[in-house]
Amino acid sequence: MHPEQGSPFDVIIIGAGFAGLYGVHQAAKAGLSVLGLEAGADVGGTWFWNRYPGARCDVESVDYSYSFDEELQQSWTWTERFAAQPEILAYINHVAERFDLKRHYRFGQRVVAAHFDDDAAHWTLRTDTGAEFRSQFVVFATGCLSAPVKPNLPGIESFAGEEYFTAQWPAQGVSFEGKRVGVIGTGSSGIQVSPIIARAARSLTVFQRSANFSVPVPNRPWTEAEQAQIRATYRERREKSYYAGAATPHASLTTKALELSPQERVSAMEDRWNGGGVLFNKVFPDQNSDLAANELVREFAVAKIRAKIDDQSVADDLIPNDHPIGTKRICTDSGYYEMYNRDNVSLVNLRREPIEEVTATGIRTADRFIELDTLVYATGFDAMTGALLRIDLHGARDARLSDTWADGPITYLGFGIPGFPNMFSINSVGTPSVMANMVLHSEQQLDWVLALVQHCRANGIRKAEARADAAVKWTDHLLEVAEGTLFVRANSWYMGANIEGKKRIFMPYIGGFGNYRRYCDEERDNGYPNFELS
Ligand code: N01
């Protein structure tokens, strides 16, 4: 309840990650009564939970940061090109303190239910502590990769050693010294954490179900000259990013792969491989849509990977052969492949040798028993829809999100779900989100939603609900764009393929951040024609 009047808040924003914090700041600045609810004990979102050693961003730090305040971006100093989790979390805390945002939040409040009252036109949210909060508008800034999934392995509950999830890493850290450690999962998290464990542990066994491509992160401190240059041109850098494909100043070449000479192609790939991060997925404009172009990039990466591994039979297992390169998120690593040259590291290929059971003391595969003191799960998330679907969500006319999305998630521009008035999902299905720089993406999302909230308030509008036909059309459009790419060929979390029984559809909007932003601008500038305003 609103502390002063006992009346509902204007807006409740759920989540204290990059998106939620920015939303709370802008809402308060606009004079709205705003409450932030956060499941964690403090701010940080993804970077609060994923504290595993080696966690690092794959977008350059100077881009993966807020742009809304010139003084903030001029005064903060990123020490490294690709920031590590502690520095990103320190930045988020700095922002929260600088703009006095924590006072708007209740921490340790995981929203478990949200019900819309049609007559009163407000939402009632209940948290896991039993507390209830009401607001006219609700914004779910609950993250795309925030609903961790524990694997469903026989006997998993019987393991008597230490167990850790990369996505719920203890703040006090973990010692692997002298331990026999197993890591399950070889996505971005497993690939980042494993080399660090390998250096400390007595032994490390990596259990791999699917191989992934990884590009080395060429991390280093920014030089003072670079920092000065970035500060001097920050505005231009941001302007370039606001309507760019991935919300960063970087773009792919404009010439298609096969139209370049072999030397030009290699030089372009070398350049992007050395540039690091996710840039390697954007060398040629057609690498994610034309299999022949993709194959050139794949062959280049395979040669690079093979060169790092002493035992080529291990390399055979580590090189993916089940998806075009880049159609699953390319990982970024620091010494992942080289790690397999160590005597204390071994790889178990679960496709050949599946896990039969977990016991109190280790893992039995089809071929052997591996004794373990510690198990690390880097087994991923129920991506993009999981955080919302884990909440008991009832909209207008008793709509339930689980029913509305039974045949797959539909949204209008990601923000609006038919049947759920005054509720906005941020960085959701139907947005570029995970394909783009999440920080600028979050700014765009919250600016758009808060403009709609203010439009409603200025015009005496009690309810804003996405039109069902607009949501169907937008979802068809996003699937059509995806069908024109190779992304639909991979069993990726983008497709919902990592979750048993989850509807397979490509969830993010792959048409580019700039194009998406133009659709959003148009909707706003035309007075929200695809929303029912009443
Ligand atoms: O999760 P994942 P993640 N038995 O889903 C395996 C972002 N991120 O946390 O592929 C055995 O990619 C599963 O196997 P398979 C980034 O967007 C970014 O690593 O389903 N294995 C897979 O290998 C990333 O894409 C950074 O066959 C099982 C792994 O677990 C996203 O988050 C860092 C299993 C899960 O990989 C998710 O990454 C970290 C089972 N029962 C994360 N169940 C940066 O660098 C699952 N697996 C910025």
TrEMBL record:
Question: Which species expresses this protein natively?
Answer: Nocardia yunnanensis
Recorded GO terms, molecular function?
A: oxidoreductase activity, acting on paired donors, with incorporation or reduction of molecular oxygen, NAD(P)H as one donor, and incorporation of one atom of oxygen
What cofactors are annotated for this protein? FAD
Q: Which PANTHER family match?
A: L-ORNITHINE N(5)-MONOOXYGENASE-RELATED (PTHR43098:SF3)
Tell me which UniProt keywords the record has, alphabetically: FAD, Flavoprotein, Monooxygenase, NADP, Oxidoreductase
**Gene3D superfamilies registered for this protein in UniProt:** FAD/NAD(P)-binding domain (3.50.50.60)
Q: What is the lineage of its organism?
A: Bacteria, Bacillati, Actinomycetota, Actinomycetes, Mycobacteriales
Similarity section: Belongs to the FAD-binding monooxygenase family.
- The protein's name is NAD(P)/FAD-dependent oxidoreductase
